[in-house]
UniProtKB/TrEMBL annotation:
Keyword ATP-binding: no
Keyword Metal-binding among UniProt keywords: yes
Pfam families: CbiX
InterPro entries: CbiX-like (IPR002762), Sirohydro_Cobaltochel/CbiX (IPR050963)
Keywords attached to this entry: Lyase, Metal-binding
Source organism superkingdom: Bacteria
CDD domains recorded: CbiX_SirB_C, CbiX_SirB_N
Native source species: Anoxybacillus thermarum
PANTHER family (UniProt xref): SIROHYDROCHLORIN FERROCHELATASE, CHLOROPLASTIC
Protein's name in the database: Sirohydrochlorin cobaltochelatase
MF (Gene Ontology): metal ion binding; sirohydrochlorin cobaltochelatase activity
């Protein structure tokens, strides 16, 4: 008697960008980790927005390839509305459509020891000397979820714990405060002679290109201070470590974030039924 073949699929979820270069970076990154994933898994990549396929289309694709188990891994920096609401909503839809398929949902990249290896390397690549005259602004996207915003503060604090001789300030590109401009003013008041902007962004896009222009403007406003924009956090080799750790957690059922009981998700789900937003990426 023939046995039933159970296909397991891993579906990586990128945020997605209006800038196709950013979407291609996600696809290329997934290609780099394929050799470290058991060849029996079917691996596919999808996007929350702007890129194709969408999350639900990505799940459909995996099921059409014969998957009876789909492990969904978000390649998203911090836990916020996307990972708490929009991906679980797509999984819920898929569960109704495919009751015979089991789903496992991993957690976002979050705070990991390798995070600080990447930040340190970005500074070294820019030949930054970390001393008492240097300020590092860790610049996040910014959002409406307090968890994600506070995680950036935690990363900034833990980074300072490893580099106590330097000023480290968190800031956000939009939605919430402190803004980049406010962080620059604070660093100037604290006596910084060099201000380094380190973008905590996973991929290039509209905001990174806007940021390049803004840092150039800062140099004109504060001619007595040196400004440096490092490479964004990005798809550094150590990011493979973080993503593979999140995958292994999901495969071993040790994921430490339960979105089904998350109070933020339950509250927002009552008030938001669709994913409509107008920010740039």
């Amino acid at each position: 008697m023939w046995g039933v073949i159970h296909v397991k699929a891993i579906l990586f979820v990128g945020h997605g960008s209006r800038d196709e270069e950013g979407n291609e970076q996600v696809r290329q990154f997934v290609q780099t980790i394929l050799p470290q994933i058991d060849a029996t898994f079917y691996v596919h990549t999808c996007f929350l927005e702007f890129g194709v396929p969408s999350v639900i289309d990505g799940i459909v694709h995996c099921v059409e390839r014969g998957a009876t188990e789909v492990i969904v891994i978000p390649i998203i920096l911090l836990p916020a509305g996307h990972s708490k609401l929009h991906i679980p909503a797509a999984i819920d839809e898929a569960k109704e459509r495919y009751p015979y398929v089991s789903f496992t949902y991993g957690r976002p990249l979050g705070i990991h020891d390798a995070t600080f290896t990447i930040l340190q390397d970005r500074l070294e690549e820019a030949e930054i000397v970390l001393d008492e005259h240097t300020a590092v602004i860790l610049l996040g996207r910014g959002g409406s979820d307090p968890d994600a915003n506070s995680d950036l503060y935690k990363i900034a604090r833990l980074f300072w714990e490893r580099n106590k001789q330097v000023i480290v300030e968190p800031a956000f590109m939009g939605v919430t405060n402190p803004s980049l401009d406010e962080a620059v003013v604070k660093c100037v008041k604290l006596g910084a002679k060099k201000i380094v902007v380190l973008p905590y962004f996973l991929f290039t896009g509209v905001l990174i290109k806007r940021l390049e222009k803004r840092v150039f403007e800062f140099q004109s406003i504060y001619p007595h201070i040196s400004f440096v924009l490092t490479h964004y956090f990005g798809f550094h080799p150590s990011l493979q470590t973080i993503v593979l750790d999140r995958l292994h957690e999901a495969l071993s059922d040790s994921v430490q974030m339960n979105c089904d009981t998350c109070q933020y998700r339950l509250h927002v789900a009552e008030h938001h039924h669709h994913h409509h937003h107008h920010h740039d990426h």
